[in-house]
């Protein structure tokens, strides 16, 4: 019906002018009357507009014409002599003040931003005492307090200003009061909170029924109270053009299709969804709700929060917003990154809830659920809210485990040579680490090809371990230095093993790279030396054979009569010894000479006993009584020794007690016979082995 309204509007505009005037007037008056009754706004007019902020701009223009009688004649000169002031809350929508100045042609100095409460009350509500002080200061400076924009549900967290007290203040100083916000939708319900109900007494309010009812292409509505039709016409709030009046046609059709019961049911369903989520979140640990005092607000804002370690219970009970920034500055950054990760995960897992991630100045990164703006369009149901709670509970162990391991990881990295801990509060993982190679210049911000090569190889090796951790290379826009970013930890991780593996693997990659470079240099020098030696050998051969043998014809005849027995001389390069060797041995014995056997390369990786199926970096049976510090790996090694010793004794006893099998076997040597005789003469030598076996058992 909403989309059909636009087509009907285009068709109706072709009617006869008189019929068109009567029809558009009827549509406009009916829609205005319905909206006034639904949202409890008595004796008001309506202005329908596409841009949501356009209605407020028209109201400001109406307030200027009402307070400056000579504005139509003198224009800006009147404003220059007595500058108007528009008061906006610090929690207002971003860019609203700049938009008003651009539309009205006013300088930015005409805006006055009123701070929110800092000591008492909600930190997202306007500070009324400070507002009154600002108004008095402006009057003393010769300015004119013109208009105040209050919020019935702030754009961020849905808090409602104390509109009743603000209305009294505006009446005292002759200021126009305009209210906007998502909580105005609750005026259609049977029960409305007193703070929102006070908005019905304001001078104007802006409604957005399109998102509330889930209807596309529905215009916003600004309801206002004014008795002078000439001023409303000059301000642009009324128009004689039928096309402007036809803006209300899509909303007129939609309201008739839904009816009062349908409108109330959609708004009520959205409020029930928010209450359902809020009640469920109160039972979840490590989740902080930021709008607990606003029981009537259809907006739920929450965030993951971990108590500060080492603090007393009284301090832990204090909300995040009431803790001093210095006390939580270090803890808040990782929580912000984790909350952003949580919000993105929930948006993917439960898209029907229409969640948004936002950054608040005081509370940090939070997740917002505003069903009034999304539920009707997405079709959000109560089952979706239950699924959202289940997803939050499933992600909490990952968040708590990761946050607990961050400090341990930082200490391990700082205590490990050649590793540098990189503090990146925007990364939602265990941490960020960088390997400092021998030629690394920390003071320089230039790109490091050698370090990038080492970190690329290190990332490949870590991903080949098939652990539950996720390893990534650092974002290029963060820094030109390469880093290894370690992701979230879903289980208990052995941080010491993780850090040691990173350090040892990076060191091996660096050593292998240096070995290859050194070998390349040695081979190059060996080739040059071989060329010099072969050139000398060729000169010596010329001296031995003589000059006559070098002449083409004479040399051939001389070689036929007196052949020269010359041995083939060459050079081979021994990679192990790094030296040149003659090939004379190879040509004489027809066998290539064997060089020195290189020593085995020591492995720097710590070999750790793991249980079957245990993945890398996992602490085995942590907190279990079955394995302790004195009976874990050493106990397993003792059992292996007992099995080897017992199998060896059984094999010896089998040979000693089965002499009849000797004729079938090969004849023993003299040494074996002598050993058997000594063993038969001294049987007591076996007792220490048996006693050792029993002791180990």
From TrEMBL:
Residues 297-403 form the PDXDC1/PDXD2 second domain. InterPro entries: GrpII_AminoAcid_Decarb (IPR050477), PDXDC1-like_2nd (IPR055103), PDXDC1-like_3rd (IPR055102), PyrdxlP-dep_de-COase (IPR002129), PyrdxlP-dep_Trfase (IPR015424), PyrdxlP-dep_Trfase_major (IPR015421). Pfam families: PDXDC1-like_cen, PDXDC1-like_cen2, Pyridoxal_deC. Its cofactor is pyridoxal 5'-phosphate. Gene3D superfamilies: 3.90.1150.170, Type I PLP-dependent aspartate aminotransferase-like (Major domain). GO terms for molecular function: carboxy-lyase activity; pyridoxal phosphate binding. Residues 591-697 are annotated as: Disordered. Keywords: Decarboxylase, Lyase, Pyridoxal phosphate. Belongs to the group II decarboxylase family. This is Pyridoxal-dependent decarboxylase domain-containing protein 1. The lineage of its organism: Eukaryota, Metazoa, Chordata, Craniata, Vertebrata.
